[in-house]
Design a protein that fits this description.
The complex is a heterodimer of chains A (115) and B (115). Chain A is 0% helix and 50% strand. Chain A is mainly β and 115 residues long. Chain B is mainly β and 115 residues long. In chain B, strands 2, 5, 6, 10, 11 and 12 form a six-stranded mixed sheet that branches. Chain B has a four-stranded antiparallel sheet with strand order 3-9-8-7, with no helix packed on it. The chains are: A mainly beta (115), B mainly beta (115). The interface between A and B is medium-sized, with 29 and 27 residues.
Chain lengths: 115, 115
């Protein structure tokens, strides 16, 4: 069964540093998403991406966040200057089309720890 | 504002017990509803989904959920749980017509099945 792959599984970074979280979506999927889950809290939508541009973003996705699909394979989330409150599990997801009718396939997540 | 509430944050059951996890939603317009499961160290997996039609939805691994519109509820059930059902369970909702704005998740229920 096709999978969404995320690397690394765990990343520790110092406050103020830039981090890039990587995702390889399922190859024939067209829509890509990032979600995060702060420990003990709910999974929150960050951003959706289609046709090389952001489709929607939540209020969480401020100027310190950016996404790109640099090579047609990877889908990355960059946090420009990390803060302690960015510590969370970050999930990537992809879907073949928009409309949740088709459901998402989620990756296993990257646990980001900002110290 | 859209929201999803899961009432039980931690549930402990013995094997063969029956399970019901509560989920209530608040959404404007037509809603699509989902239950996801996350086994330890693994990615979010779709258990079942409801879009329209029969309000009793059957999913994988013997799970089912019932959409009760009058109660704004979508409770997850399983008649007889197994030790392998130990996991985190998330209820989620999305508006109909497009998933670009992402899923709204509940906080999750941590289910522990004791042998």
């Amino acid at each position: 069964e096709p999978e969404v792959t995320q690397t690394p599984s765990h990343q520790v970074t110092q406050m103020g540093q830039e981090v890039i979280l990587r995702c390889v979506p399922i190859s024939n999927h067209l829509y890509f998403y990032w979600y995060r889950q702060i420990l003990g809290q709910k999974v929150e939508f960050l951003v959706s991406f289609y046709n090389n541009e952001i489709s929607e973003k939540s209020e969480i996705f401020d100027d310190q966040f950016s996404v790109e699909r640099p090579d047609g394979s990877n889908f990355t989330l960059k946090i420009r200057s990390t803060k302690l409150e960015d510590s969370a599990m970050y999930f990537c997801a992809s879907s073949p089309t928009t409309g949740v009718n088709y459901g998402y396939t989620f990756g296993s997540g990257t646990r980001l720890t900002v110290v | 504002a859209q929201s999803v509430s899961q009432h039980n944050h931690h549930v402990i059951l013995s094997e063969a017990a029956s399970l019901e996890l509560g989920c209530n939603y608040s959404y404007g317009g037509t809603v699509n509803l989902f239950w996801y499961v996350q086994y330890p160290g693994q990615h979010l997996q779709l258990l079942l989904k409801y879009f329209s039609g029969d309000p009793l939805v059957k999913g994988i691994k013997g799970f089912e959920a019932e959409f009760i519109k009058s109660k704004f509820s979508f409770n997850l059930r399983k008649p007889s749980v197994q030790w392998s059902d130990t996991a985190e369970y998330f209820c989620a909702a999305a508006g109909q017509g497009g998933g670009a704005d992402g899923l709204t998740f509940g906080k999750g229920t941590h289910l522990i099945i004791q042998p």
